[in-house]
Write a structure and sequence with these properties.
By secondary structure, the chain is mainly beta. Helix content is 4%, strand content 42%. The protein has two domains: 145 residues, Jelly Rolls; 86 residues, OB fold (Dihydrolipoamide Acetyltransferase, E2P).
Amino acid sequence: MSCPWGSLQSGFSGAPHPETNRLLATSGANVLSPGGPELGPGPNPALESDNLTIVFDTPVSCFGFDHLSQSADGYSFTHIAVRDASGKQIYGGSVPISGSGGGAPGGPDFWGIVSSSADIKTVEITEGDNNNQYPDCNIGFDTFRYFSTTPAAGVNNRDLRHPVVAAAAEWQKFRVWGVVTVLDAESFLLDDGSALHVKVVCPGYTGLVTGDYAQAAGTVSNGEEPPTLAASPGDVTKLN
């Protein structure tokens, strides 16, 4: 259930139902609105300029949010630029929103981006509607979502030797499984039945003995035989 937020100010043209032109919160009673709770007409940058820049301490691979339109009329005038840690733009585009027709009621729309690597450092959101034609020059934000890593991809021991795995190893974690052969206190082999082993290097792992069945997730190096998967103890699971 969405909760109306903000107070509509006078001065708009083409507002047949002004009581509906508010920001609809999607996660409670409040929203993030850079211009504040007064939803006034433009041009008035202090009131209706709702630009926002988000900088992540550590780059992420996925990011999204609920875009709240004062009037969901099909035209957001909201532009997004996504940059990596060097400042290079890796995405640029507008936010599509629902609805049609000037003066339509407010409404939320989800926008998100997924990258093949954790390279999203900065998200710049610029809102460009700055006039008093229709009550649609104010926006808000709600329910931010982000992830810093991509899920580990399951792969068998034979395919782990493929060149595509080497190409993806810089950003993608992999998951392997099989019968354990303990080598020492920091490493063990996994055999998934293909007679091809993977060496798991995991300082501090416990609870496994030769003959157990286990899975492990981590970063892969397949330049030597057998390929090596570097894992942390929390990414090793005994399955039997």
